[in-house]
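Every protein is a chain of amino acids, and every chain bends into a shape of its own. The fold becomes a row of whole numbers, each drawn from a learned catalogue of backbone shapes. The protein below has been through that process, and both of its lines are reproduced in full.
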Amino acid sequence: MDFWRFRSCHANRKKPTRRSYTIYRNMAENEGDPDGRQVEVMVAEASPAGTSAGDGRRKVREGGRCPCQGRWRTMAYVGLMGIFVFVVGFLLGYTTPRGSPCSGCGDLMAMVNDERPYETDDKQDGALLYWATLREMFQKYLNEETIEGTIRKMSEAPHPPGSPRLDALSRHVLDAFNSFDLDHSWTDSHYVGLQRPDWRQPNFLHRVDPGGAVLEKLPLGDPDVYCPYSGASTVTGNLVFANYGRREDFAVLKQLGVNPRGHLVLVRVGEISYAEKVANAEASRAEGVLIYPDPFDILEDPRKPGLSPNMSIYGHVHMGAGDPYSPGFPSFNHTQFPPIQSSGLPKIPAHPISANVASYLLRQLAGPVAPQAWKGRLPAILYRLGPAEPSFRLQLGVQNVKQSVMINNIFGCIEGRFEPDHYLIVGAQRDSLGPGAARSGVGTAILLELARTFAAMVRNGFQLRRSLLFVSWDAGDFGSVGSTEWLEGYLTMLHLKAAAYISLDNAVLGDDVFFAKTSPALVSLIESVIRQVDSPSRSGQSIFDQITEQGRRWETEDPSYSYGQQCLRLHLLWGGPRCGILFCRGERPSLPVWCANSRLYPFLNTMLDTYDNLNRALYGRLPAVAKTVAEVVGHILIKLTHDHLLPLDYWCYGDVLLEHIGRFNKYFTQLKNRGLTLQWMYSARGDYTRAADKLRKDIYSSEEHNERLLRMYNVRIMRVEFYFLSQYVSVTETPFRHILHGRGPHTLGALLEHVDLLREAPEAFDEVLFRRQLALVTWTLQGAANALSGDVWNIDNNF
């Protein structure tokens, strides 16, 4: 019966080569019947040892007339053979162990249980191995040349949202999904507010005298290089240097007696996002922000072309994700929005400038010399903090205008067989303000190749338990606008159905290999995969071995691996614009996959982000490196879409919570002296650990192929990440609600920062605020513990 379901499941798929499927092997069209209408049925018969099983094979042609019709002898023979086969089958079924991998699930591929170790020998007697077989199938269909062609096509010219160039690329992506014969492909459109330069009133930077007369016009470079969502105004003031524009940098300025209030602030690219730099400057009452690339942060390789000192780097400055003019609401057509805008929109202007302009400005500064750690590599610059002489005045004019633009997210889906309403989502940004080879070209190429490869695997026998969703996002350069709007439109449904998300944005940036820190639930799975995928640059060595051979961690937090606004800390927060969708908000396990050292590629977010420059940065190995990323992602997706139980490590959060909460122990005495305690929070963490332990024991003691239980367990596992979102803060006002990786007073980080005042500034400690923060964290943890327990009658905690 399973055989016939298998045939009907694939009957509506277009096949480049017709095949006849059996439990044992695939038969090509030319193996037997030339018209391709043959159905092959394997009949198990008792035969002496060494006799071929194929001796019992019978062929039945569709539409053919049985030559034995009306012949009593043949009918009697067929009847006896049927009885004989039934008896043999019954005996074999009776003697076969009930715990065999396929006894309960009806899987048609001969394979071992998916819980067996990856290291199992392929040559063992018995059935083919799941992991080895599918790896071989995946490698067979993955095509490096196709990836290369797509990267070249995507990066021929800039393609910002709403442009004719992007419209053509969008049609290409949708046509590709259609040609792969996926189960579903469609486009989701939104009408969003984007900010662009006004060509009638170009942005400018002037040096002016105290009366406002222009003394010198300073070049801003390419008019298409700007900061989307900057405040639109003209401001005048002196200048202060604030290093990377971090909060601690502004604290150093305060300690050294330099006040940014009323001045423009000059900051370097790197460490934090453009949006955070501008938000910190605005909090310090600065008038505007100028952002430049310091050679120290680029670390240019002399063997490769570097960033020109006259070039600047673009980046949006919205402290959030999605359309800032409809925060929390999906930007569908005809939707009525309240008259509000995102609180993350800055009120002060910001603009990128080149290293040459920054050198000129830094030479004008007086005041204290900057700390040694603040000094970059601009030639002949002392790096003073400022301000300059009182007569030195700068005037910055940013005249960006808001435009309503229709954007399109493009989807392709392969449905799962047993849990089709549970989704594994892999996405990549499609747009770019520049040519975008690294920005969007590589990610889109890998996305399309993965869709094509998985579709080919399904046509040749691979069965997905869960649905696989491939998404090409629009308006990513404006802060994951496309992905966030889609999330906001389908938030309730996605909370219940999305299991994990893999981001392909900026997947290849240099010739080093590492992965941005990801969800703890995915760490074990990723490590097992990269131990088996070969390094793109070292034959015979796995990615894991290459990364760790010098004592490095494969998931790194080292800020030296950041460049521009692509700082790893954005990924650590899951709130940066690069991750996008609900997964960046911490609502699903998220994996931003990078195969790069971004500091070795200086052209990201510039007009020189071309195929040739990126390929040169990789010594001519761009297609090979991109293919390696596709292999890693593909192997992860195979496990996530096929295993009976989702391979997400919900148990690890017990240790993660212990690590975070353990940082509070050193404040025990100070809290006790004030009559305060953190015992509630400790108890909630203990309840979560007990709930996770109970779930693990329930899984191991349950029937392996009970589909009802499997689905119930998978639902609880896939929602673990969601449980750590605070339910006590508004999603529209506090979009990053994860208590570990989010931002806001509800997070463990905010509570720790407040408690730290007991040592640093006891007079600033607010007991009322402390109790509120503690309650927010505690009850979020307790809610996660209760949800992981399952049904209401299964909750057993010691809170």
In short: The radius of gyration is 30 Å. The chain has three domains: 138-192+405-642, 204-399, 652-794. The domain at 652-794 is CATH 1.20.930.40 (Transcription Elongation Factor S-II; Chain A).
